[in-house]
C-alpha cells in the first residue's frame, strides 16, 4: 500500500482569547435565532446559496472520509407535488394510528398534523440520503462507517449554513420515507435520511412558543 500523504495545516486560524469569546458569543446568538419554520413564502431562492451550503455540508467530518451522503435538491413543482402527496399519506397514518398517545401529546405544542402544504409552497426541498454502503464501478459493495453519525453532522452543518445565509428550514421526517427513493429514483444503497424544507418564511409566519433547555440542563463540567 502507498504511504499516506500529509500536508501542512494551512487553514487553521488562531484568535486571541477575547476574540474567541466574541466569536463564540456571536455564533451562539446567531444559532439561538434559528427556528424551524412551517409557513414558507414561495419566493425562489438563489441557486448559488444552495450550492454553497451543500458544498459546506460536504466538508463534514465523517467515517473514513467516504462521505456517505447524497443531496437531491427539488425545485420542480411536479416533483414537489408528488412528494407532498406521498408524505401526506404516510403522515395521515402516523397521526391516526402509528404515533400513539405519548408521541401525539409530545407533538401537541408544535401544532403539527398530517397536512404538509409547505412541501409544495416552499421553493426548495433537499432530500438527504445516507449511503449504507458504497457502490464500486464494477457494482460491488464498498463498506461505509458511522453512516448515521456522518450524515447527521453534515445535515447539522447544512442547516447552520442555510440559516446563516438567511434561509429558513424545516427538518421534516415523514416516516417511513421509502417513497423518496422511488420518486427521486435513488440507487439501492441509499436510504432517505431527512427531508429539509428550505425557503424564506412567509410574511405572516408564526412559530410555536417553546423554549430550549438551559446550559445547566444540557451540560456537565467536571
Ligand atoms: N413526522 C411528523 C411528526 C413529527 C415528529 C417529530 I419527533 C417532530 O419533532 C415533528 C413532527 C410530522 O412531520 O408532522
Protein architecture, described:
Helix 2 runs antiparallel to helix 6 (147-165). The longest helix has 22 residues, at 77-98. The protein has helices at 17-32, 47-57, 77-98, 100-107, 118-121, 147-165, 178-183, 215-218; strands spanning 69-74, 124-131, 133-135, 141-143, 168-172, 190-199. The strands form two sheets. A four-stranded antiparallel beta sheet has the order 1-2-6-5. Helix content is 41%, strand content 16%. Strand 3 and strand 4 (141-143) form a beta hairpin. It is of the alpha+beta class. It has eight helices and six strands; from the N terminus they run ααβαααβββαβαβα. The protein binds 3-iodo-tyrosine. The site of 3-iodo-tyrosine has 9 residues, from helix 3.
Which keywords apply here?
6 strands, alpha+beta, 4-stranded antiparallel sheet, 222 residues, binds 3-iodo-tyrosine
Q: Gist?
A:
The protein is of the alpha+beta class and 222 residues long. The protein has 8 helices and 6 strands; from the N terminus they run H-H-E-H-H-H-E-E-E-H-E-H-E-H. Helices cover 41% and strands 16% of the residues.
Residues in helices, as a percent range: 40-55%
- Overall residue-averaged pLDDT value: 97
Q: Terminal Cα separation, in Å?
A: 43 Å
Tell me the strand order in the biggest sheet.
1-2-6-5
Strand content: 15-25%
* Total number of helices: 8
Radius of gyration computed on alpha carbons: 20 Å
Given the C-alpha coordinates, what overall shape results? globular
- Helix/strand-derived category reads alpha+beta
The counted number of beta strands is: 6
Largest sheet: 4 strands, antiparallel
Ranges where pLDDT stays below 50 over 5 or more residues in a row are none
| Helix-strand string | HHEHHHEEEHEHEH
Bound molecules: 3-iodo-tyrosine
